[in-house]
UniProtKB/TrEMBL annotation:
Family: Belongs to the peptidase S9A family.
Lineage top rank: taxon: Bacteria
Protein name: prolyl oligopeptidase
InterPro entries: AB_hydrolase_fold, Pept_S9_AS, Pept_S9A_N, Peptidase_S9_cat, Peptidase_S9A, Prolyl_oligopep/macrocyclase
Species this chain originates from: Nonomuraea monospora
Alphabetized Pfam families for the sequence: Peptidase_S9 (PF00326), Peptidase_S9_N (PF02897)
Sequence ranges assigned to domain Peptidase S9 prolyl oligopeptidase catalytic in this UniProt record: 451-656
Catalyses which reaction(s): Hydrolysis of Pro-|-Xaa >> Ala-|-Xaa in oligopeptides
EC number(s) on file: 3.4.21.26
């Protein structure tokens, strides 16, 4: 490993701004500009430093080989039915990207579009009859998708590209000649296949997020317009005399998803007056008049639902990060039973036929089970495995431990610890978390986790406030002025691991991505002596200027607006870049970034890396791993494996893993 004297030089400017009464230093502002020759020279020097350092990591080749094996499970997703046709994604162990299948025929393969592997399939939606396919692709990880339409009988592209469709929802009208779609942060538009006329704006409310969904019969269109704290919901009767959208909910402080099902009722999944969510119904003719069907569960978060024949309603829930599916009477809401599951893991992608039917499909995974697809039959009340991943790998024996601990303010928090059995004594440990945007961290198969545990390490996942593991109240208790709760929960998790003998400060590393990168950045600046190593991937780190690049402007509802005097105070209290102090013995740190990241600007990592290299007083490495041609989201399998191997090798070197030989 290199030492601080070997760090590439970075000019430290005497730049200070006074904003809302705060003196804010920003000595590495120049690193925000990726095309500045100084930035490019600095990046090249950082890349040489990283490559030289990586050569001395003894675990690197071992992790690369084992991760390649553990990732060879492949992938299958639950079926999506349109007419009599069945669509799903499938990825064999040899494929870099999943391919889209109609029945068992491949209809779209990203590698055929671009053999370099840099093009990804971001989203797809067949028409109601299953004859045409709308799909979105982006290149080099920029997530700036273009939308195309393909005829599934001939394979011919019959329309597109339509730009500005970043992960756009698509709602096809019957017949497959037109559809509604979302332009990113612009609104909902109506597009007609092959038309030379401009697309018709249907619903616009400014730079917010939108969603669209259409009923199985093509009559009812639901439109969602959301902000960081909630959404409005609208319903349009496309067969009525007045097809203009009518309000279902207009609330900035509640999230509601709505859809008209095959029984003709409007179903509303909402956290309004129910932080763990409840399910309501309404007559589409009077969409603002709701009736509660399934009340909030005090201990479980309602996740998704689907309607089956015989007035059976399946409802998935997450109970302290463990998935379950309940069977309910669709008319009364009464709970009739529980869908048998293969274990205590995660449930995802609950699907059924749009017109009803006795069957439903869902994905199941846990720490040692790659995602499998299971089929539930309401006629027999049985669950059977519908599809297994196409690849088979040898898996280590591991055990999951569910631990509850107390945060700084007395709040109980849960954590899952995964380790090999019968290995007592402190061990090298990775602690990870997220704690933002109401997103839960659920148990699931992950090659990097298993490779680490197999090598003798411990993996801990903390279900922090700010996430969605315990509902919307849990989320709100870790956002805006309460963001420090997230960091306190994380630090308390580290202290619990040490107190219970799982690890020591010298063997404890932390790893976070995106919002989780902000998490580990705050942890390393607030409690540097608690950790030996940090991996910060695509992290938000300059919270004074985060809203000026990437998707930052859309996140002010989660973090606060730096242009607001009160909010700026909250952000400065924890902004990692602004809390780097010269001479501090910081943990060994690795930043991983991608040049094409359009969500989190790589400038965060560049500035934070320069600041830590300047400040570090303990002689530990501070490194930057930089990829020029990928982004924040999906990437080829080989690129994902390479990144994970490098991260694990860095942590193994810093946390004292024994020689892999």
């Amino acid at each position: 490993m290199r030492f601080p004297d070997d760090f590439p030089p970075a000019e430290r400017l005497p730049l200070t701004e006074r904003r809302h009464g705060h003196e804010i230093a920003d000595p590495y502002r120049w690193l925000e500009d990726p095309v500045d020759p100084r930035t490019q020279d600095w990046l090249a020097a950082q890349d040489r430093l990283w490559r030289d350092s990586a050569k001395s990591m003894p675990w690197r080749e071992r992790f690369l080989a084992r991760l390649t094996e553990l990732r060879d499970t492949g992938l299958v997703t639950p079926p999506v039915w349109r007419g009599v046709r069945r669509f799903h994604l499938r990825q064999s162990p040899s494929q870099e990207h999943p391919v889209l299948c109609c029945d068992d025929r491949v209809v779209l393969d990203p590698m055929e579009l671009d053999p370099s592997g840099l093009t990804t399939l971001d989203d797809w939606q067949p028409d109601l009859e299953g004859r045409r396919l709308a799909y979105q692709i982006s290149r080099s990880g920029d997530e700036k998708a273009c939308l195309y339409v393909r005829d599934l009988a001939t394979g011919e592209v019959v329309d597109g590209p339509i730009g500005g469709c970043r992960y756009s929802a698509v709602a096809w009208l019957p017949g497959g000649e037109s559809f509604y779609y979302v332009r990113f942060q612009q609104g909902v538009f109506l597009h007609t296949i092959g038309s030379a006329d401009a697309d018709v704006p249907v619903f616009t409310r400014g730079a917010i997020s939108y969603g669209v969904q259409i009923s199985p019969d093509g009559r009812w269109l639901t439109i969602s317009a959301g902000t960081g704290s909630g959404n409005s919901l609208w319903l349009a009767d496309l067969a009525g005399e007045d097809p203009a959208p009518r309000p279902v909910q207009e609330s900035p402080n509640a999230r509601t998803a709505g859809a008209v099902a095959c029984d003709g009722r409007l179903y509303l999944l909402t956290d309004r007056d129910a932080p763990r969510r409840r399910l309501c119904v309404a007559d589409p003719a009077s969409p603002a008049v709701w009736r509660e069907l399934i009340p909030e569960d005090e201990e479980a978060v309602l996740g998704a639902f689907t309607l089956l024949d015989g007035d059976r309603l399946l409802v998935s829930r997450t109970r302290h990060a463990i998935g379950e599916i309940g069977v309910h009477d669709a008319r009364t809401g009464e709970r009739l039973g529980t869908v048998p599951l293969p274990g205590n893991g995660s449930i995802a992608s609950l699907t059924s036929r749009p017109g009803g039917g006795p069957e439903a499909w869902f994905a199941y995974t846990d720490a040692v089970t790659p995602a499998e697809i299971w089929r539930y039959d309401a006629r027999t009340d049985t669950t059977t495995r519908w599809s297994s991943p196409p690849g088979q790998v040898g898996l280590p024996e591991v055990r999951s431990h569910h631990i509850e601990y107390v945060s700084a303010d007395g709040t109980p928090v849960r954590m899952v610890v995964v380790a090999r059995p019968s290995q007592g004594g402190p061990r090298p440990t990775i602690l990870s978390g997220y704690g933002g945007f109401g997103i839960p961290l659920m148990p699931g198969y992950a090659a990097d986790s298993l490779a680490w545990v197999e090598a003798g390490g411990v993996l801990a996942i903390a279900n922090l406030r700010g996430g969605g593991e315990e509902g919307e109240a849990w989320h709100r208790d870790g956002m805006l002025e309460r963001k420090q709760n997230v960091f306190d929960d994380f630090v308390a998790a580290a202290e619990k691991l040490i107190a219970d003998g799982w690890t020591t400060p010298g063997q404890l590393g932390i790893w976070g991505e995106s919002n989780g990168g902000l998490l580990v950045g705050a942890a390393l600046t607030q409690r540097p002596g608690l950790f030996a190593a940090v991996v910060c991937s695509a992290g938000l780190l300059d919270m004074v200027r985060y809203h000026l690049s990437g998707l930052g402007p859309s996140w002010t509802g989660e973090y606060g607006d730096p242009d607001d005097p009160e909010h700026l105070g909250w952000l400065l209290d924890y902004s990692p870049y602004h809390h780097v102090r010269e001479g501090t013995d910081y943990p060994a740190t690795l930043f991983t970034v991608a040049a094409a990241d359009t969500r989190v600007d790589p400038m965060h990592a560049r500035k934070m890396c320069a600041a830590l290299q300047w400040a570090s007083g303990g002689g530990r490495p501070v490194l930057l791993r930089y990829e020029p041609d990928v982004g924040h989201g999906a990437r080829a399998v080989s690129r994902s494996v390479g990144l994970a191997a490098d991260v694990l090798a860095f942590l193994a070197a810093q946390l004292g893993c024994s020689d892999p030989a």
